[in-house]
Design a protein that fits this description.
The complex is a heterodimer of chains A (114) and B (112). Chain A is mostly beta strands and 114 residues long. Chain A has no helices and 11 strands. In chain A, strands 2, 4, 5, 6, 9, 10 and 11 form a 7-stranded mixed beta sheet that branches. In chain A, a hairpin with a 2-residue loop joins strand 7 and strand 8. The chains are: A mainly beta (114), B mainly beta (112).
């Protein structure tokens, strides 16, 4: 069966520190991968999506970057965190590049930048 | 990207049906209508999707207007576990891949 793993579940980081959040998918190949962020009490904002290794599309200009070094691995990074980077980060994947294919989400990482 | 409009919140009594409306007047012919829900401190969960015809599954029903400019998610008998934020989304397949853009959603409160 297909599963998605995202870690850590919670993270507290000082302003100016680096960030690395990892997401891996099992049980499938060549998935579409996504990073979303949710500020407290708000909806989800699409940050990045990837249709293949090394292929990253960025939705909004920001202090973050994403990489896909392997087919089923998606990494969200920052060199220097800002207070505004705090939020709930969610990784998701879908199997086909088709508009009727559903997204499956990871359990999320709650990031607090202090 | 085509956008959706939903009420901010709705209340329902337990065991009663809940009808969640969604307007998507700029929908294109190839956009599927997806619904997800998010429980507190969790990632969104797929509920249902459709293109033109009404759809039913174990979680809910989706009624799509004939002109596809609106749709309604129907929870037939609300339970306390259905309290969540429900998102109506148009799934856009672009040249660079899929995008699924979430709006603010509707917060559903279920009263015992």
């Amino acid at each position: 069966s297909q599963t998605i793993h995202q870690w850590p579940a919670t993270l507290v980081q000082p302003v100016g520190s680096p960030l690395s959040l990892e997401c891996t998918v099992e049980g499938t190949s060549n998935p579409n991968l996504y990073w979303y962020r949710q500020a407290a009490g708000r909806g989800l904002q699409l940050l990045f999506y990837s249709v293949g290794i090394g292929q990253i599309s960025s939705e909004v200009p920001q202090n973050l970057s994403a990489s896909r070094p392997q087919d089923r691995q998606f990494i969200l990074s920052s060199k220097k965190l800002l207070l505004s980077d705090s939020g709930f980060y969610l990784c998701a994947w879908s199997e086909l590049q088709a508009s009727n294919e559903k997204l499956l989400f990871g359990s999320g990482t709650q990031l607090s930048v202090l | 990207d085509a956008k959706t409009t939903q009420p901010n919140s709705m209340e329902s009594n337990e065991e009663e049906p809940v009808h969640l409306p969604c307007n998507h007047s700029t929908i294109s012919g190839t956009d599927y209508i997806h619904w997800y829900r998010q429980l507190p401190s969790q990632g969104p969960e797929y509920v249902i999707h459709g293109l033109t015809s009404n759809v039913n599954n174990r979680m809910a029903s989706l009624a799509i207007a004939e002109d596809r400019k609106s749709s309604t998610l129907i929870l037939h008998r609300a339970t306390l576990r259905d309290a969540a934020v429900y998102y109506c989304i148009l799934r856009d397949v672009g040249a660079a891949g899929n995008k699924l853009t979430f709006g603010g959603g509707t917060r559903v409160l279920v009263k015992p």
